[in-house]
Amino acid sequence: MATERIQTTSTPRYRQLADIIRGAIEQGLLTDNQALPSERELAEKYEVSRDTVRKAVRYLEERGVIYSDHGRGTFVAPALVRRMSRFIDSFSQDTAQRGGVPGQQILAVESVAASMGIAGLLGVEPGHSLTRVRRVRLIDDAPVGLHDAYFPLPRGMKIDRAEIEQTQSLYKLLTEKSGFAPAEAVENLCAAAADAEDARLLGIAEGSPVLLCERITLSERREPIEYCVMKYVASYRYNTRIAKTSGMT
After folding, report:
1. C-alpha distances in angstroms, 207 versus 78, 143, 177, 196, 238?
2. pLDDT one-digit tens code per residue, 62-87
3. Do 100 and 140 touch, CB atoms closer than 8 A?
4. Rounded CA gap, 135 and 197, in Å?
């Protein structure tokens, strides 16, 4: 693994370390079922505490990137498992991992008052100021989805169209500006029919089937930090992974 310095930024140190480890896996520096360096070795190499290492390992385990074998160590998950894991990452990163070229058409970046329904989902008062970002998502210049996201950003913080276009990844921009740290998401999936506006934006016939996904993204403290409605064309592959954790029946 290449040595990268952990920076003093708003991004938690364990998240930076997790990104370094995942980057090494994506670059082929760590291969399927290969053992990771020990907790002590990682702590010394990246000059972080062992608690930071443990948090980074747990973060990657929860996302199916690595797995632990009690008494033997921690290992890189096979590529098939990693591909089937649903990371709470940006569409751009997910698309790049699939081998496509991500793109976007920004339809709106605006401040809106939280409706009663959205306010309840995000844990804010009705009328609370939210930032709404509405986009058409592209893969290889072809429209594949509509994302309509709402964020209760910190007081005084704003994002604009130019910033999103420059970074390409909204999650990356929010992480850099506010320490946005998605840890878990709750999703509802169902089939729907494209209305006239959906059809126009996605280049499909009105009434065509689309996959409708509503997602609430939670922070490490399990506080809601995003509500997003996503609609995907039928050809888009939406992978998800369900894992059984200890104590579940």
Report:
1. 39, 17, 39, 8, 20
2. 878 898 887 889 999 888 667 655 45
3. yes
4. 13
Annotated domain spans of the chain: 13-84, 100-233
Is residue 111 within 8 Å of residue 132, measured between CB atoms? yes
Question: In 112-154, where does DSSP find H-type helix?
Answer: 116-122
Structure tokens at 196: 């006239």
CATH code: domain 100-233 is: 3.40.1410.10
Range 13-84: architecture per CATH: Orthogonal Bundle (1.10)
Q: At what angle do helices 39-46 and 13-26 cross, to 10 degrees?
A: 110
Q: What is the dihedral of CA 156, 157, 162, 165, to 10 degrees?
A: -160
CA–centroid distance for 65 within its chain: 14
d(CA 199, CA 187): 23
Q: Indicate the SS3 state at residue 90.
A: coil
42-56, 74-88, 105-119, 149-163, range with the lowest pLDDT: 74-88
d(CA 36, CA 73): 8
Asked, colleague to colleague, whether 13-84 and 100-233 share their fold, the answer is no
User: Residue 14: phi, psi to the nearest 5?
Assistant: -65, -30
